[in-house]
Amino acid sequence: MPHRDVVSATAAIGALTRRGRHRDALAMFSRVLADGVAPNEFTFGTVLRSATVLRAPRVGAQLHACAAKLGLCSNVFVGSALLDHYAKMGAMREAQGALEDTREPNVVSNTALIAGLLKNGMFDEADRLFRRMPERNLISWNAMIGGCSQAGLSEDAVNLFLEMCREGVTPNESTFPCVLTSVANAGALGVGRSVHASAIKFLGKLDVYVGNSLVSFYARCGSLEESVLAFKRMKQKNVVSWNALICGYAQNGKGEEALNAYKTMRATGLKPNNVTLLGLLFGCNHAGLVDEGYALFKAAEREQPGILKPEHYACVVDLLSRAKRFDDAKKFLEDLPFEPGIGFWKALIGGCQIHWNRELAESVAERIHALDPKDTSSYILLSNVYSAAGSWQSVSRIRREIKEKGLKRITGCSWIEVQDKVHVFFNGDCRHPQSEEICAMLGACLYTREDDQHEQSTE
Protein backbone atom coordinates (compact mmCIF):
# COMPACT_ATOMS: atom_id res chain seq x y z
CA MET A 1 0.00 0.00 0.00
CA PRO A 2 1.34 3.52 -0.72
CA HIS A 3 2.40 5.53 2.34
CA ARG A 4 0.82 8.94 2.20
CA ASP A 5 2.79 10.41 5.11
CA VAL A 6 5.31 9.62 7.83
CA VAL A 7 2.59 9.03 10.47
CA SER A 8 0.91 6.17 8.58
CA ALA A 9 4.31 4.74 7.62
CA THR A 10 5.50 4.75 11.25
CA ALA A 11 2.23 3.16 12.39
CA ALA A 12 2.61 0.36 9.82
CA ILE A 13 6.24 -0.32 10.86
CA GLY A 14 5.21 -0.28 14.52
CA ALA A 15 2.45 -2.81 13.89
CA LEU A 16 4.94 -5.22 12.28
CA THR A 17 7.40 -4.75 15.14
CA ARG A 18 4.75 -5.50 17.77
CA ARG A 19 3.82 -8.72 15.96
CA GLY A 20 7.45 -9.85 15.92
CA ARG A 21 7.78 -9.44 12.14
CA HIS A 22 11.07 -7.60 12.43
CA ARG A 23 12.48 -8.39 8.98
CA ASP A 24 9.25 -7.16 7.43
CA ALA A 25 9.50 -3.97 9.53
CA LEU A 26 13.01 -3.29 8.17
CA ALA A 27 11.85 -4.05 4.61
CA MET A 28 8.94 -1.61 4.99
CA PHE A 29 11.31 1.07 6.31
CA SER A 30 13.36 0.66 3.12
CA ARG A 31 10.20 1.00 0.99
CA VAL A 32 9.22 4.14 2.89
CA LEU A 33 12.58 5.72 2.03
CA ALA A 34 12.20 4.62 -1.62
CA ASP A 35 8.76 6.30 -1.70
CA GLY A 36 10.40 9.58 -0.70
CA VAL A 37 8.81 9.75 2.75
CA ALA A 38 11.26 11.22 5.29
CA PRO A 39 11.18 9.22 8.57
CA ASN A 40 10.93 11.11 11.85
CA GLU A 41 12.29 10.39 15.35
CA PHE A 42 9.44 7.96 16.12
CA THR A 43 10.09 5.97 12.94
CA PHE A 44 13.74 5.47 13.91
CA GLY A 45 12.85 4.60 17.50
CA THR A 46 10.53 1.88 16.21
CA VAL A 47 12.69 0.37 13.48
CA LEU A 48 15.82 0.31 15.67
CA ARG A 49 14.02 -2.07 18.03
CA SER A 50 13.71 -4.52 15.15
CA ALA A 51 17.42 -4.23 14.33
CA THR A 52 18.19 -4.92 18.00
CA VAL A 53 15.95 -7.98 18.22
CA LEU A 54 17.51 -9.39 15.03
CA ARG A 55 20.97 -8.62 16.45
CA ALA A 56 21.91 -6.85 13.23
CA PRO A 57 24.68 -4.33 14.06
CA ARG A 58 25.29 -3.50 10.38
CA VAL A 59 21.63 -2.60 9.94
CA GLY A 60 21.85 -0.50 13.10
CA ALA A 61 24.86 1.34 11.71
CA GLN A 62 22.98 2.01 8.44
CA LEU A 63 20.00 3.37 10.36
CA HIS A 64 22.39 5.56 12.36
CA ALA A 65 23.86 6.94 9.13
CA CYS A 66 20.37 7.61 7.78
CA ALA A 67 19.39 9.45 11.00
CA ALA A 68 22.58 11.51 10.82
CA LYS A 69 21.83 12.46 7.20
CA LEU A 70 18.41 13.72 8.28
CA GLY A 71 19.87 15.60 11.25
CA LEU A 72 18.02 13.53 13.86
CA CYS A 73 20.93 12.11 15.90
CA SER A 74 20.76 14.96 18.41
CA ASN A 75 17.09 14.17 19.10
CA VAL A 76 16.81 12.53 22.53
CA PHE A 77 14.34 9.90 21.28
CA VAL A 78 16.59 8.80 18.39
CA GLY A 79 19.74 9.12 20.51
CA SER A 80 18.27 6.88 23.23
CA ALA A 81 17.18 4.27 20.66
CA LEU A 82 20.64 4.25 19.02
CA LEU A 83 22.34 4.06 22.40
CA ASP A 84 20.15 1.15 23.50
CA HIS A 85 20.81 -0.69 20.23
CA TYR A 86 24.59 -0.31 20.41
CA ALA A 87 24.69 -1.21 24.12
CA LYS A 88 22.77 -4.44 23.50
CA MET A 89 25.13 -5.28 20.63
CA GLY A 90 28.11 -4.78 22.97
CA ALA A 91 29.40 -1.81 20.91
CA MET A 92 30.03 0.45 23.90
CA ARG A 93 32.21 3.00 22.10
CA GLU A 94 29.41 3.65 19.61
CA ALA A 95 26.87 3.73 22.45
CA GLN A 96 28.85 6.39 24.30
CA GLY A 97 29.18 8.33 21.02
CA ALA A 98 25.39 8.24 20.58
CA LEU A 99 24.97 9.70 24.09
CA GLU A 100 27.47 12.47 23.35
CA ASP A 101 25.62 13.34 20.11
CA THR A 102 22.31 13.69 21.97
CA ARG A 103 21.52 17.33 22.63
CA GLU A 104 19.72 16.90 25.96
CA PRO A 105 20.15 13.31 27.20
CA ASN A 106 17.56 12.31 29.79
CA VAL A 107 17.36 9.68 32.51
CA VAL A 108 16.29 7.06 29.93
CA SER A 109 19.39 7.68 27.79
CA ASN A 110 21.75 7.52 30.75
CA THR A 111 20.09 4.41 32.18
CA ALA A 112 20.36 2.60 28.83
CA LEU A 113 24.09 3.34 28.71
CA ILE A 114 24.57 2.27 32.34
CA ALA A 115 22.84 -1.05 31.63
CA GLY A 116 25.09 -1.61 28.62
CA LEU A 117 28.27 -0.75 30.54
CA LEU A 118 27.35 -3.13 33.35
CA LYS A 119 26.48 -5.92 30.93
CA ASN A 120 29.89 -5.56 29.31
CA GLY A 121 31.80 -5.55 32.61
CA MET A 122 32.60 -1.83 32.64
CA PHE A 123 31.57 -1.30 36.26
CA ASP A 124 33.71 1.72 37.10
CA GLU A 125 32.47 3.58 34.01
CA ALA A 126 28.85 2.71 34.87
CA ASP A 127 29.27 3.95 38.44
CA ARG A 128 30.87 7.23 37.30
CA LEU A 129 28.03 7.87 34.85
CA PHE A 130 25.45 6.98 37.50
CA ARG A 131 26.98 9.45 39.96
CA ARG A 132 27.06 12.22 37.32
CA MET A 133 23.41 11.80 36.30
CA PRO A 134 21.46 15.00 36.99
CA GLU A 135 18.36 12.89 37.63
CA ARG A 136 18.10 9.30 38.87
CA ASN A 137 14.85 7.36 39.01
CA LEU A 138 13.88 3.90 40.21
CA ILE A 139 14.75 2.34 36.84
CA SER A 140 18.30 3.70 36.94
CA TRP A 141 18.76 2.48 40.54
CA ASN A 142 17.43 -0.96 39.57
CA ALA A 143 19.78 -1.05 36.56
CA MET A 144 22.78 -0.45 38.82
CA ILE A 145 21.67 -2.90 41.51
CA GLY A 146 20.73 -5.60 38.97
CA GLY A 147 23.95 -5.15 36.99
CA CYS A 148 26.13 -5.46 40.09
CA SER A 149 24.14 -8.49 41.28
CA GLN A 150 24.52 -10.32 37.96
CA ALA A 151 28.26 -9.56 37.91
CA GLY A 152 28.74 -11.03 41.39
CA LEU A 153 29.43 -7.63 42.99
CA SER A 154 27.19 -8.54 45.89
CA GLU A 155 28.42 -6.00 48.41
CA ASP A 156 28.10 -3.17 45.89
CA ALA A 157 24.54 -4.22 45.04
CA VAL A 158 23.48 -4.27 48.71
CA ASN A 159 25.16 -0.92 49.40
CA LEU A 160 23.37 0.63 46.42
CA PHE A 161 20.06 -0.68 47.73
CA LEU A 162 20.70 0.89 51.14
CA GLU A 163 21.76 4.16 49.52
CA MET A 164 18.63 4.17 47.35
CA CYS A 165 16.40 3.76 50.41
CA ARG A 166 18.27 6.54 52.25
CA GLU A 167 17.64 8.87 49.32
CA GLY A 168 13.92 8.23 49.60
CA VAL A 169 13.51 6.17 46.40
CA THR A 170 10.91 3.44 46.98
CA PRO A 171 12.01 0.00 45.68
CA ASN A 172 9.61 -2.11 43.64
CA GLU A 173 9.10 -5.79 42.74
CA SER A 174 12.09 -5.70 40.38
CA THR A 175 14.48 -4.45 43.07
CA PHE A 176 14.17 -7.15 45.72
CA PRO A 177 15.05 -10.30 43.71
CA CYS A 178 18.39 -8.71 42.72
CA VAL A 179 19.16 -7.60 46.28
CA LEU A 180 18.20 -10.97 47.78
CA THR A 181 20.41 -12.79 45.25
CA SER A 182 23.35 -10.59 46.27
CA VAL A 183 22.71 -11.11 49.98
CA ALA A 184 22.48 -14.88 49.41
CA ASN A 185 25.81 -14.82 47.53
CA ALA A 186 27.39 -13.08 50.52
CA GLY A 187 25.76 -15.50 52.97
CA ALA A 188 24.50 -12.55 55.04
CA LEU A 189 21.43 -14.02 56.72
CA GLY A 190 20.85 -11.05 59.05
CA VAL A 191 21.01 -8.53 56.23
CA GLY A 192 18.65 -10.67 54.17
CA ARG A 193 16.10 -10.73 56.96
CA SER A 194 16.20 -6.93 56.97
CA VAL A 195 15.67 -6.89 53.20
CA HIS A 196 12.72 -9.27 53.68
CA ALA A 197 11.22 -6.84 56.22
CA SER A 198 11.75 -3.97 53.76
CA ALA A 199 9.93 -5.91 51.02
CA ILE A 200 6.90 -6.34 53.30
CA LYS A 201 7.07 -2.65 54.30
CA PHE A 202 7.30 -1.28 50.76
CA LEU A 203 5.28 -3.85 48.81
CA GLY A 204 2.75 -5.24 51.25
CA LYS A 205 1.79 -8.36 49.29
CA LEU A 206 4.83 -10.13 47.85
CA ASP A 207 4.51 -11.35 44.27
CA VAL A 208 5.75 -14.72 43.04
CA TYR A 209 9.16 -13.34 41.94
CA VAL A 210 9.99 -11.86 45.35
CA GLY A 211 8.61 -15.00 47.03
CA ASN A 212 10.83 -17.25 44.90
CA SER A 213 13.86 -15.12 45.78
CA LEU A 214 13.09 -15.42 49.50
CA VAL A 215 12.77 -19.23 49.30
CA SER A 216 16.11 -19.45 47.51
CA PHE A 217 17.83 -16.88 49.78
CA TYR A 218 16.97 -18.57 53.08
CA ALA A 219 17.92 -22.02 51.76
CA ARG A 220 21.28 -20.80 50.46
CA CYS A 221 22.02 -19.21 53.83
CA GLY A 222 21.30 -22.51 55.58
CA SER A 223 18.02 -21.43 57.17
CA LEU A 224 15.92 -24.19 55.67
CA GLU A 225 13.05 -23.75 58.12
CA GLU A 226 12.56 -20.11 57.04
CA SER A 227 12.88 -21.14 53.39
CA VAL A 228 10.05 -23.67 53.72
CA LEU A 229 7.96 -21.11 55.64
CA ALA A 230 8.46 -18.52 52.87
CA PHE A 231 7.36 -21.14 50.33
CA LYS A 232 4.22 -22.05 52.29
CA ARG A 233 3.24 -18.39 52.60
CA MET A 234 3.25 -17.87 48.83
CA LYS A 235 -0.27 -17.47 47.45
CA GLN A 236 0.85 -18.21 43.89
CA LYS A 237 3.50 -20.80 42.97
CA ASN A 238 5.12 -21.64 39.65
CA VAL A 239 7.78 -24.15 38.59
CA VAL A 240 10.50 -21.71 39.72
CA SER A 241 8.98 -21.70 43.22
CA TRP A 242 9.11 -25.49 43.41
CA ASN A 243 12.65 -25.51 41.99
CA ALA A 244 13.75 -23.08 44.71
CA LEU A 245 12.30 -25.40 47.37
CA ILE A 246 13.72 -28.60 45.82
CA CYS A 247 17.18 -27.08 45.30
CA GLY A 248 17.06 -25.66 48.84
CA TYR A 249 16.46 -29.12 50.28
CA ALA A 250 19.22 -30.53 48.04
CA GLN A 251 21.76 -27.88 49.05
CA ASN A 252 21.11 -28.63 52.70
CA GLY A 253 21.52 -32.41 52.36
CA LYS A 254 17.79 -33.23 52.54
CA GLY A 255 17.46 -35.60 49.59
CA GLU A 256 14.33 -37.38 50.83
CA GLU A 257 12.55 -34.05 51.39
CA ALA A 258 13.56 -32.92 47.88
CA LEU A 259 11.99 -36.07 46.41
CA ASN A 260 8.80 -35.58 48.44
CA ALA A 261 8.54 -31.96 47.27
CA TYR A 262 8.97 -33.17 43.68
CA LYS A 263 6.11 -35.67 44.09
CA THR A 264 3.86 -32.93 45.49
CA MET A 265 4.83 -30.64 42.61
CA ARG A 266 3.88 -33.29 40.05
CA ALA A 267 0.54 -33.77 41.84
CA THR A 268 -0.25 -30.08 41.17
CA GLY A 269 0.09 -30.72 37.43
CA LEU A 270 3.36 -28.81 36.95
CA LYS A 271 6.02 -30.38 34.72
CA PRO A 272 9.67 -30.43 35.84
CA ASN A 273 12.31 -28.61 33.83
CA ASN A 274 16.07 -28.95 33.60
CA VAL A 275 16.60 -27.06 36.89
CA THR A 276 14.17 -29.37 38.73
CA LEU A 277 16.06 -32.46 37.56
CA LEU A 278 19.44 -30.94 38.41
CA GLY A 279 18.28 -30.12 41.95
CA LEU A 280 16.89 -33.64 42.42
CA LEU A 281 20.09 -35.30 41.18
CA PHE A 282 22.16 -33.07 43.44
CA GLY A 283 19.96 -33.94 46.42
CA CYS A 284 20.08 -37.68 45.71
CA ASN A 285 23.84 -37.47 45.24
CA HIS A 286 24.57 -35.94 48.63
CA ALA A 287 22.00 -38.07 50.45
CA GLY A 288 23.33 -41.33 48.97
CA LEU A 289 20.05 -42.05 47.13
CA VAL A 290 21.76 -43.61 44.12
CA ASP A 291 18.94 -45.77 42.76
CA GLU A 292 16.37 -42.98 43.18
CA GLY A 293 18.58 -40.45 41.37
CA TYR A 294 19.39 -42.82 38.52
CA ALA A 295 15.68 -43.70 38.14
CA LEU A 296 14.80 -39.99 37.87
CA PHE A 297 17.41 -39.53 35.15
CA LYS A 298 16.17 -42.54 33.15
CA ALA A 299 12.56 -41.32 33.48
CA ALA A 300 13.55 -37.90 32.12
CA GLU A 301 15.46 -39.62 29.30
CA ARG A 302 12.26 -41.46 28.30
CA GLU A 303 9.64 -38.76 28.92
CA GLN A 304 11.42 -35.38 28.56
CA PRO A 305 14.70 -35.87 26.67
CA GLY A 306 14.61 -32.20 25.68
CA ILE A 307 15.42 -31.04 29.24
CA LEU A 308 18.63 -33.08 29.49
CA LYS A 309 21.86 -31.08 29.39
CA PRO A 310 25.53 -32.08 29.89
CA GLU A 311 25.39 -31.11 33.58
CA HIS A 312 22.70 -33.76 34.19
CA TYR A 313 24.91 -36.47 32.72
CA ALA A 314 27.84 -35.21 34.82
CA CYS A 315 25.63 -35.45 37.94
CA VAL A 316 24.90 -39.11 37.17
CA VAL A 317 28.63 -39.84 36.82
CA ASP A 318 29.21 -38.17 40.18
CA LEU A 319 26.27 -40.07 41.71
CA LEU A 320 27.62 -43.46 40.59
CA SER A 321 31.26 -42.82 41.43
CA ARG A 322 30.45 -41.51 44.93
CA ALA A 323 28.56 -44.78 45.51
CA LYS A 324 31.70 -46.74 44.47
CA ARG A 325 29.94 -48.02 41.34
CA PHE A 326 32.93 -47.27 39.12
CA ASP A 327 32.14 -49.85 36.46
CA ASP A 328 28.64 -48.36 36.03
CA ALA A 329 30.12 -44.85 35.89
CA LYS A 330 32.65 -45.85 33.20
CA LYS A 331 29.94 -47.61 31.18
CA PHE A 332 27.72 -44.53 31.48
CA LEU A 333 30.59 -42.36 30.18
CA GLU A 334 31.18 -44.70 27.24
CA ASP A 335 27.50 -44.54 26.25
CA LEU A 336 27.21 -40.73 26.36
CA PRO A 337 25.62 -39.21 23.23
CA PHE A 338 28.48 -36.67 23.11
CA GLU A 339 32.18 -36.46 23.90
CA PRO A 340 32.60 -35.96 27.68
CA GLY A 341 34.50 -32.87 28.78
CA ILE A 342 36.85 -32.35 31.71
CA GLY A 343 34.00 -31.94 34.21
CA PHE A 344 32.86 -35.54 33.66
CA TRP A 345 36.31 -36.97 34.39
CA LYS A 346 36.65 -34.74 37.45
CA ALA A 347 33.39 -36.19 38.77
CA LEU A 348 34.86 -39.68 38.36
CA ILE A 349 38.16 -38.80 40.01
CA GLY A 350 36.22 -37.22 42.88
CA GLY A 351 34.71 -40.63 43.60
CA CYS A 352 38.18 -42.16 43.44
CA GLN A 353 39.27 -39.74 46.15
CA ILE A 354 36.40 -40.81 48.45
CA HIS A 355 37.08 -44.54 47.96
CA TRP A 356 40.89 -44.43 47.59
CA ASN A 357 40.84 -45.90 44.06
CA ARG A 358 44.39 -44.99 43.13
CA GLU A 359 44.65 -46.96 39.89
CA LEU A 360 41.51 -45.50 38.33
CA ALA A 361 42.40 -42.00 39.57
CA GLU A 362 45.76 -42.15 37.78
CA SER A 363 44.08 -43.29 34.55
CA VAL A 364 41.45 -40.53 34.72
CA ALA A 365 44.08 -37.89 35.58
CA GLU A 366 45.96 -38.80 32.39
CA ARG A 367 42.80 -38.18 30.37
CA ILE A 368 42.27 -34.78 32.03
CA HIS A 369 45.89 -33.75 31.45
CA ALA A 370 45.55 -34.72 27.78
CA LEU A 371 42.44 -32.53 27.48
CA ASP A 372 43.93 -29.60 29.42
CA PRO A 373 47.56 -29.81 30.61
CA LYS A 374 47.10 -26.60 32.64
CA ASP A 375 44.14 -27.79 34.69
CA THR A 376 45.37 -27.52 38.29
CA SER A 377 42.34 -29.04 40.01
CA SER A 378 42.97 -32.50 38.54
CA TYR A 379 46.48 -32.50 40.04
CA ILE A 380 45.02 -31.49 43.41
CA LEU A 381 42.38 -34.24 43.25
CA LEU A 382 45.02 -36.85 42.37
CA SER A 383 47.23 -35.57 45.20
CA ASN A 384 44.30 -35.99 47.59
CA VAL A 385 43.80 -39.59 46.41
CA TYR A 386 47.46 -40.36 47.11
CA SER A 387 47.23 -38.61 50.47
CA ALA A 388 44.15 -40.63 51.50
CA ALA A 389 45.98 -43.83 50.49
CA GLY A 390 49.07 -42.79 52.48
CA SER A 391 51.28 -42.63 49.38
CA TRP A 392 53.34 -39.63 50.49
CA GLN A 393 56.06 -40.03 47.86
CA SER A 394 53.41 -39.68 45.14
CA VAL A 395 51.96 -36.63 46.93
CA SER A 396 55.39 -34.96 46.91
CA ARG A 397 55.85 -35.82 43.23
CA ILE A 398 52.51 -34.24 42.29
CA ARG A 399 53.21 -31.08 44.29
CA ARG A 400 56.65 -30.80 42.69
CA GLU A 401 55.06 -31.19 39.25
CA ILE A 402 52.54 -28.42 40.03
CA LYS A 403 55.39 -26.11 41.05
CA GLU A 404 57.61 -26.95 38.05
CA LYS A 405 54.76 -26.34 35.58
CA GLY A 406 53.95 -22.98 37.19
CA LEU A 407 50.36 -23.97 37.89
CA LYS A 408 48.44 -21.97 40.47
CA ARG A 409 45.96 -23.34 42.96
CA ILE A 410 42.65 -21.56 43.52
CA THR A 411 42.79 -20.15 47.01
CA GLY A 412 40.30 -21.66 49.46
CA CYS A 413 37.80 -19.22 50.90
CA SER A 414 35.22 -19.29 53.71
CA TRP A 415 33.10 -16.72 55.48
CA ILE A 416 31.02 -16.29 58.59
CA GLU A 417 28.40 -13.72 59.58
CA VAL A 418 28.77 -12.18 63.06
CA GLN A 419 26.35 -9.45 64.19
CA ASP A 420 25.15 -8.74 60.63
CA LYS A 421 28.71 -8.37 59.33
CA VAL A 422 30.29 -10.92 56.97
CA HIS A 423 33.93 -11.86 57.69
CA VAL A 424 35.80 -13.43 54.75
CA PHE A 425 38.88 -15.66 55.19
CA PHE A 426 41.26 -16.97 52.52
CA ASN A 427 43.65 -19.87 52.96
CA GLY A 428 46.86 -18.54 54.58
CA ASP A 429 45.48 -14.99 54.66
CA CYS A 430 46.40 -12.86 57.69
CA ARG A 431 44.82 -9.58 56.55
CA HIS A 432 41.82 -9.76 58.87
CA PRO A 433 42.21 -7.06 61.57
CA GLN A 434 41.61 -9.66 64.30
CA SER A 435 43.75 -12.41 62.78
CA GLU A 436 46.10 -12.61 65.79
CA GLU A 437 43.19 -12.97 68.23
CA ILE A 438 41.53 -15.56 65.99
CA CYS A 439 44.74 -17.63 65.75
CA ALA A 440 45.23 -17.39 69.51
CA MET A 441 41.69 -18.64 70.12
CA LEU A 442 42.12 -21.50 67.64
CA GLY A 443 45.39 -22.43 69.32
CA ALA A 444 43.70 -22.44 72.73
CA CYS A 445 40.89 -24.65 71.42
CA LEU A 446 43.35 -27.12 69.87
CA TYR A 447 45.47 -27.13 73.04
CA THR A 448 42.38 -27.87 75.17
CA ARG A 449 41.33 -30.67 72.82
CA GLU A 450 44.80 -32.27 72.97
CA ASP A 451 44.69 -32.12 76.78
CA ASP A 452 41.26 -33.80 76.82
CA GLN A 453 42.48 -36.54 74.50
CA HIS A 454 45.58 -37.09 76.66
CA GLU A 455 43.44 -37.38 79.83
CA GLN A 456 41.13 -39.90 78.14
CA SER A 457 44.09 -42.02 77.02
CA THR A 458 45.56 -42.15 80.55
CA GLU A 459 42.30 -43.14 82.23
UniProtKB/TrEMBL annotation:
UniProt-listed GO biological process terms: RNA modification
PPR repeats: 5-39, 106-136, 137-171, 238-272
GO molecular function terms noted in the UniProt entry: RNA binding
Pfam families: E_motif, PPR, PPR_2
Keywords: Repeat, Transit peptide
InterPro entries named among the record's database cross-references: E_motif, PPR_At4g14850-like_plant, PPR_rpt, TPR-like_helical_dom_sf
NCBIfam families named among the record's database cross-references: PPR
Entry protein name: DYW domain-containing protein
The organism of origin for this protein: Panicum hallii var. hallii
